[in-house]
Amino acid sequence: MKRMLSGIKPTGQLHLGNYIGALRHFVENQEEYEMIAFIANLHCITVPQDPDELRKNLRDCVALYLACGLDPKKSTIFLQTDVMEHAQLGFIINCHTYLGELNRMTQFKDKQAKGEKNLSGGLYTYPALMAADILIYDADYVPVGEDQKQHVELCRDVAIRMNNRYGELFRVPEPAVPKVGARIMSLSDPSKKMSKSDTLGDKGCIYLLDPLPKARKKIMSAKTDSLGIVHFDPENQPGISNLMQILSSLTGESMDAIEKEFEGKGYGDFKKAVANAVCDTLEKIQTRYNEILESDIIDTTLREGAEKARAMASKKLDQVQRAIGMEIR
Ligand code: ATP
Ligand code: LTN
After folding, report:
1. For atom 2 of ligand 2, which residue has the closest CA?
2. How far is the CA of 9 from the centre of ligand 2 (A)?
């Protein structure tokens, strides 16, 4: 069985972009692949975090993994810090990653270009840690949204480099980026990605735990255009095209079918259909989430997941350290 691995960093509440671009694919693929889904709580401290908020976000993130349908019997679910081998292999990978490669990573470059002050060393080198997360489990595929593809490609380059130098150490993974919904845009500014760190307040971002009326309102007031036709054209109609991507991802309808369905109808009708699809999805997730919070399933899942993951990770770390010549026992 091929292995799939991915992680989400709990830097805030999970949003619809995380669900459509990543999380739902973890769930869909857990039948066909051996799925490893972890919470990247080392990655999230690359930017400052409030400890109380972080604790809450961590619990919510696990609860949402489960509420979205990840099944601990089928998938390995754990916290990154419960498997310390990630950090250790992270350092080793860091030592095999070139500054030129890190300098090309757009996430860091964008933050720097925005003039953000006091960016941490961890933020700069985090693609090396991400590569370790993937390589330590010999993952075949990495389901991620568009913004993370570059990091998986860096991971491939470093894996190939280390395999050439030390012999076959790592499986070289492939990014699995969905055809529709890999980059859900902000509802208030469709030129920007929907993001936890949305600067325009939270109007552009639908959180998975938003009360349904609030989510509906955000969709109904999403920025569109004055053309008045429901047509998929991300360049000229970015707002409408974004809403079409959301609808298509949630209902499985093709863009053509959506265009036909709303031919001659106004944006109001179209937005209502999108809001209904989003609210149906959120309602199911939130019902499950509330049940999960009242059970002890989170702790059991994390304990059992970490045990399974640790067994795999410690073997690989040992193999790598031996190949490099770092161990003499
Ligand atoms: P931030 O929004 O604060 O930059 P993030 O949401 O991009 O953070 P993560 O939570 O770690 O960061 O992302 C988890 C997964 O969700 C990644 O695979 C990422 O590519 C995907 N993802 C994030 N935002 C979107 C989006 N707007 N559309 C589609 N996929 C997304
Ligand atoms: N860097 C990713 C989260 C992440 C990840 C990973 C995704 C950390 N390690 C390994 C896939 C595989 C992010 O910021 N969204």
Report:
1. 8
2. 7
What's the CATH number where 153 sits? 3.40.50.620
Atom of ligand 1 nearest to the CA of 11: 3
Decide if 38 is inside a domain.
Answer: yes
Q: The whole model's pTM is what?
A: 0.96
Distance CA 6, CA 23 (A): 9
Burial of 303 (0-12, 13-18, 19+ CB in 10 A): exposed
Residues 164 and 254 in one domain: no
Give the largest CA-CA distance in the chain.
74
Best mutation site among 26, 33, 124, 133 for ligand 2 pocket (most ligand atoms within 8 Å of CB): 133
Residue 255, classified by CB atoms within 10 Å of its CB into exposed (0-12), middle (13-18) or buried (19+), is middle
Chain-wide mean pLDDT for the chain? 96
Contact status, residue 119 vs residue 112, Cβ threshold 8 Å? yes
The pLDDT of residue 196 is 82
Residues 205-239: tens digit of each pLDDT: 999 999 999 999 999 999 999 999 999 999 999 99
User: d(Cα 30, Cα 37) in Å, to the nearest integer?
Assistant: 10
Q: What angle do CA 11, 12, 13 make, to 5 degrees?
A: 140
